[in-house]
Design goal:
A five-stranded mixed sheet has the order 6-5-4-7-8, sandwiched between helices. Strands 1-2-3 form a three-stranded antiparallel sheet, with no helix packed on it. The protein has eleven helices and eight strands. Helix 4 packs across helix 5. Helices cover about 40% and strands about 15% of the residues.
Length: about 300
């Protein structure tokens, strides 16, 4: 479906995806943009099996599930509800909580919570490029105040490393990861995983960033001596990203983000921040659907027991 013909308002979206058949047709288009291809014989034609998400090859008879290998696999809820959930999630600038999704769609809280985490898993583009050029890097804590704790020490807070590209138009793409601590063994690998060799990495004078040159990155160090005004002045883009992240966590999710699931919320923030200049919010819906067909589903029990999201 061409972007120019894609729904641009909530009413147009409901008209376009108001039936299960329309949702299946769009999902098939996203999954097989060049047309269906049988995984068994590579034949290009198939019959849809009525009332099910299966396509049967007209040559060999192999049945292929439309939703297998996607976040929608084995869901008992209609695709039109899934599509509406994704639309609500991406078109609200500050996101939506599980309680909010529960109220709007009339589904149970566990279902709303599970869907949102599955959608967050689908917010990371497979094989995405590393940051390049000039990149500001810093780290910050998420969590409430702790008495008797100073500097980079913490007992309850989560430490998040942040890298932001600097472009001629301001902040470019962002990458965020939860790290164990502020040591070199945690911060240097973060830079290596997210910034290309040859790029200029700008950090403060913290010892955790030493030896970055040995990784093939150029290191620009700025000594701040604990002055927050200097930090904002010399690292404006990374501090803006950190501020917006805290606003998302404290506002939409009321600060109730567990350490275990923090990577999922970082995925969500990165997706929103990196596409904040999109002229049409329905483009975000299209992108999530494109990533969703490449993101295998996980069970509710797995989401409860394992961290969600990726680096």
């Amino acid at each position: 479906m061409e972007m120019m013909n894609f729904p641009k308002t909530a009413i147009e979206f409901d008209d376009r995806f108001g039936s299960e058949e329309a949702c299946r047709a769009y999902l098939a288009h996203v999954r097989w943009p060049d047309g269906f291809c049988c995984p068994n014989c590579n034949h290009r034609s198939a019959w849809p099996i009525r009332g099910r998400d299966l396509l049967q090859c007209t040559q060999c008879g192999r049945q292929t599930s439309l939703t297998a290998g996607t976040i929608f696999h084995r869901s008992r809820k209609p695709l039109r509800l899934w599509f509406k959930a994704i639309y609500l999630f991406v078109t609200q600038k500050t996101g939506i909580s599980a309680r909010g999704l529960q109220r709007q769609l009339g589904i149970s809280y566990p279902t709303a919570w599970t869907w949102l985490h599955k959608i967050r898993r689908a917010m990371v583009r497979p094989g995405r490029d590393l940051l390049s050029g000039l990149v500001e890097v810093d780290e910050s804590y998420l969590g409430g105040t702790e008495e008797g704790v100073h500097g980079r020490e913490t007992e309850k807070k989560a430490l998040v490393a942040v890298a932001v590209e600097v472009t001629e138009h301001g902040a470019g793409r962002v990458r965020m990861e939860r790290v164990d601590d502020a040591s070199e063994s945690s911060l240097k690998p973060f830079v290596v995983r997210n910034v290309t060799k040859g790029s200029a990495v700008k950090t403060d004078g913290w010892a955790g960033y030493r030896n970055l040159r040995k990784t093939g990155r150029r290191h620009r160090k700025r000594l701040l001596r604990g002055d927050p005004k200097k930090a904002i002045k010399h690292f404006p883009h990374v501090h803006r990203a950190i501020s917006l992240l805290k606003r998302l966590v404290l506002g939409t999710y009321q600060g109730s983000v567990s350490h275990k699931h923090l990577p999922a919320y970082l995925n969500e923030f990165e997706f929103r921040f990196n596409r904040r200049r999109a002229k049409n919010v329905t483009l975000l819906f299209q992108r999530v659907c494109e990533f969703a067909v490449c993101t295998p589903a996980v069970a509710y029990s797995e989401l409860l027991s394992q961290p969600v999201g990726g680096a």
